Amino acid sequence: MDNTVFFLLLLILLPVFISTMFIPYWTRKTESFGVSIPETYYYSTNLKQMRKKYVLQTGVLGLFIIAFLVFIATFFQLNEEGVSIYFGGLTFGYIILTFLIYLHFHQKMKELKENNGEKWAQKSQLVVIDTGFRNQKLTYSNFWFTISFFIAIFTMVITMQNYQQIPLEIPMKYNFAGDVTNFTEKSYRSVLILPIMQVYLTLLFILINIIISKAKQQVSVENPKESMQKNVTFRRRWSAFIIITGIALTAMFSMIQLSLIYPINPQLMTIVPLAFSLFVTIGAIVLSFTTGQGGSRVVSKEAFGKENIIDRDDDKYWKLGMFYFNKNDPALFLEKRFGVGWTNNWAHPLSWFIIIGIILLAAGIPFLLSL
Amino acid sequence: MYISLDFESKEPIYTQLVHQIIAGIAKEELSPGEALPSVRSLAADIGINLHTVNKAYQQLKQEGFILIHRQKGVVINPDGVPQADESYMEKLEANLHPLIAESICRGVSKDEFLTLAGQLYEKFKQKEGEV
Description:
Helix content of chain B: 40-55%
Helix content of chain A: 55-70%
Number of strands of chain B: 4
Domain DUF1648 (chain A): 151-198
Protein name (chain A): DUF1648 domain-containing protein
Structural class of chain B: mainly alpha
Organism (chain A): Ornithinibacillus salinisoli
Number of domains of chain B: 2
Domain DUF5808 (chain A): 327-352
Number of helices of chain A: 10
Largest interface: A-B, 26 and 26 residues
Low-confidence stretches of chain A: none
Distance between the termini of chain A: 33 Å
Strand order of the largest sheet of chain B: 2-4-3
Largest sheet of chain B: 3 strands, antiparallel
CATH topology of the largest domain in chain B: Arc Repressor Mutant, subunit A
Mean pLDDT of chain B: 91
Oligomer: heterodimer
Strand content of chain A: 5-15%
Order of helices and strands of chain B: EHEHHEEHH
Number of strands of chain A: 10
Radius of gyration of chain B: 17 Å
Keywords (chain A): Membrane, Transmembrane, Transmembrane helix
Distance between the termini of chain B: 17 Å
Shape of chain B: globular
Mean pLDDT of chain A: 87
């Protein structure tokens, strides 16, 4: 494994490590390690220490992974396949181990809540909603994605017009050095893989934008007006991020497709995807840091958090504090408990259809078209 | 308008919903013609069964507080709420009856009762901010 590969892997892993470590600080202050708490207790020394410990433990784990990579890089001569197996294994191990660390903290948090039962559950549990919430502009328009569709159609037309110029073998996979490692034979179907993926991904981004606008209204009881405004900011920022990322991604795919027809500087072909991934990961981290889950980190002037009110305590519907199962709730999408973003109500069959459909299409399109 | 529901309360959720929407109209936080969320989206936002919201909306519709259009969705009755008639006065009397009876049993004087009722009535007339 040479140094560039090692450096690239590090570049991918670091943002993942950072975003895992700081999740407890990015989630809502009414939730701690998947357990709902009164907002005031977020600032208690006990919870402060727990968050610090979590950062420490996941941080040490990340360092171990990096050390392991360094070890492999120095002592083993691995081919492309070996690197991807090791990398896949390490990532998988990291996900499992961070989940176990989370579970440990979740368990501790649950015990803490039980022990403080009388103090924390004294006040009644309220749900506040604003009847005018959905009359506001929650996301940016899906019409922005017409740009993506135009790019995809433009790419298809160019491809078909220049079909003769396309080499007989189309690259399907690149290694880290930018060399082609897997080809498929040229046909009218196979040259359309990328443009069709563009359409698929744009539809996926539209779905995400719809999820952002439809997701359950979650307003803090202590300060409904302010938390609602923050939530609107949260949705709009992520919507803008999704739209920009979606358009940039389709543009990048077009560049790759056009490189089949026109000579494009190979350096550019490695730099652009790298720059794109950096932009997306760093953008997501910056957004998480400045906005927080549900807009909880959006800067506000008013001070709040004085009473012991608990937002609706729906802990029993959150399996392991992470997976929402509530048969009586018609909501399909809602904010994650632990992390930034949205998740599904897994008691809703449609959730499963959507997730399975997305995976099948993603795997099926390249497979069917390259047959 | 903010609706706040107490899941621990003995009062059923749909009754709480009905009372809060009527209170919203009384306080003029909901104006005639204003749109309310659809049954599905309100149920999803609160996290309760569709039937619960439906039940509340049906009751409000029957009493003339809201209209449910197939296309336009749910709106606060644009012509205003039907004014009190004989049957409403009868219902009011029937509702007050047990309250007064219990107050007398518990030694609440007529003055106390009337002052409280007056204060509550005034509260509805105050606009937000003029506390």
